[in-house]
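Hello forum,

I keep getting stuck at the same step: I have a sequence, I want structure tokens, and every attempt I make locally crashes halfway through. Rather than fight my setup again tonight, could one of you with a working pipeline run this one for me? It's a single chain of 792 residues.
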Amino acid sequence: MIPIQLISIGVQLANVGPLMCIALIALPVVLLLSLVSGHRLHTALVYYVLSLIPFLILSHLYAIGVLGLEEAFKGFPSLIFTIVFPMFWEACLIKSAKDWGFAEWLDGILPELQTPSINRRRKKRLVFKLTKKYSGKERSYPDLGVLMSLSKKTVVEVLRRGGGLDLYMAVVPKRRREEAIREFLGNYGFTEIDRDLRTTVHSTKPRDAKIILTGDPRREYERLPDSFILVVESGRTSDITLIEGRPIETTYISAGLGFRAGRTVRPIPKAPVYKVGLYRIVPYGREVDVLRLRADRECTYYYTDVSSLWRAVFMKTIPTVDWREWIEVPHIAIIGETGSGKSVALANIIKHLVEKGERVLVFDLNGQFHNVYEEMRENDHDVRYLDLARDIRIDISGLPVPLTAEVITLTMRSIDLREGERHGMALSPIAYEVLRGILHELEEVGEISFEKLIELLKAKEEAYSRFREDYATACGALRRRIAHFISPPFISGRENIVDILRRINEKGGAVFIGMNITSRNGKYRITYGEQVLVVMLTLRLIFNMWETNPRRLNIVLDEASRVLHRNLGGVSPAVLILEEGRKFGIRLILADQVLSVLDESVQQAPLLIFLRTKNADDLLYIERVMGREIMELLKRLNTGEAVMFKAGTIARTEFEYTRLSEHRAIVEVPTKVYRMEREVYQIPGKRPTLRSKVMKIAREVIEALEDMGLTTGMTAEEVTDLVLKARRAGVTMDMLKSEKSIEEHTELLERFKLIRWGRGIPKITWLEKVFRRAWERLPEFREISEHEKETI
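Reply #2:
Ran it on my machine without issues. Output:
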């Protein structure tokens, strides 16, 4: 061949004919391989130029006579160099494109220049998101073998979000298999999305994303990182290398490619083979299209059975959904430990329902939803916040006697379950027997009130004290407990609860019932039993009213165990609503800390929302129903994060933070409440002393004056002592009948403050009322003389 001098570049070349053939053949080959591997056209052109460099160098060496000498000793090395040098160069190019990231680097720095073939290829990609997860004995994830038979490449991206993980899947379908893939993945809860998946990966350190295929899904689940990308491609049997039945780990070193030593075992011919690559997602990595990632780039395994890894990936992920799309169900139960976000979840649901214009009734036990009410009121929604004893009155005298009797019995049991056993104050079976008998008597009379209950219990206690001390003790315990219900919620209030419920039924709107009340002087604060009785009575009234006039109504109740405890021993109104309320349009949205203490009907709620919980019984139930992975997830959820379970489908959600309040209403407590409390705690059968009788009259007078806004400046004990001393000193009512008698005994009356001087005229004081009533009511008071030494 004739050497040619290229004067323009100053390089001598030889073998022009073979060089032109190589260039013409290499150009389409390099372009085709680059486009097939997903790289851009400009990257292919760079590699084309680089691939010709060794041939240009060899041609130049031949032209200047360095190579091709005729001597045998020198000609043989030149032949070896001619063969080895191009092979080494091309191997480096392949290595740089395949493993060193040089091709991706070129794609990133060179300007966009895409071909129609690339665009056509991108149109074939399908991207899906897992939107629901099934639980049960059947396999709840798609079979990898079926999926790979329909696709050329599958890339699964798992992203950590809050306390759980989202799963996306990008698929390159085979020809005319798009619809089959959509149908297949749609059956497993995948929804197609119209966007590409791009993420940041660490593409230079394979050991950072190491995964061990053990065949045990549990071990592989624990070894998987929180955020990762799994690339699965179909492989060839000749690509498989196994050692003792396990795949060889591909390791990359600076000198090239190396394999772990061991005995090589070939898989079954024509067996399904997959190339599996794992990438760790890192914040400092480079953003790439996930379909550009390859299975044989990092920590790669060629394996004939990756079902354990495939299952571990789906064990790791639970889809994230919007809770608003799931709450259109008959009833909702929210379970979570203290501080997990139950009240925040309820606040979010309340706001959503009010904004939709639905009927809502909220039992605000602790005043924490007052901020939600204020926010809704500022947005011009139809909402009202009504406090017990100030705005609402629970008048049981106008309610059906059987209904009230049933609710009173259930309230007694609820108090026993919550507070009685804790403090050793639970009622005995005899007490419930006595209560049933008294309530039965009142049903026959057709009228019921707490005052009548106490009167009957007093009478029975006195009667039983003669021959059945156990029954007398039971009557006393009942009497003292029922005395707590003679309290402001059942006495005061501008509007009856029946009228409020009727208005909700007819006109709609949202009503918050504030149940956190206290007195101005701090002597009174609403009790657990009062709250339970109010909730139960209201729920029972709602069921009866909606039974005749069905309407859609949402009832929101926190601390549901008060009215839904599994050991309540009767059909609670809340259970009645859970079982039969749907046909009347009543929906119960309840929350509590522990599911296992609630009635079994709660577990049958169409939607269960679990926040963070550590209760052992609840975790066992969750593991049995939803799996061990969900149980482990619930232990580490953040505040506001939740796992929802609906019709065998599992999903994760998150509730937006809402600031809660500590609203407390100040109410006026009638003196009747304190007086009744003192009377109730008086021991029947023991004859009261004269001093106690006079003191009772003194309290009546003082309370009456205080109700009129007057202050006495004396205690009942001081008044009693003064009145008794006056009687011992010989004061009688005759001395106070006329002005003449008052003037005659001025000094005596003034000493005991029965009169005072005003403008030179003696005037009777308020102590005269105490003296007069004691004189009129108490014969023994009239018989006292200064010589009597009996104990008063």
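Residues 73 and 283 are 58 Å apart (CA to CA). If your local run keeps crashing, start a new thread with the error log.
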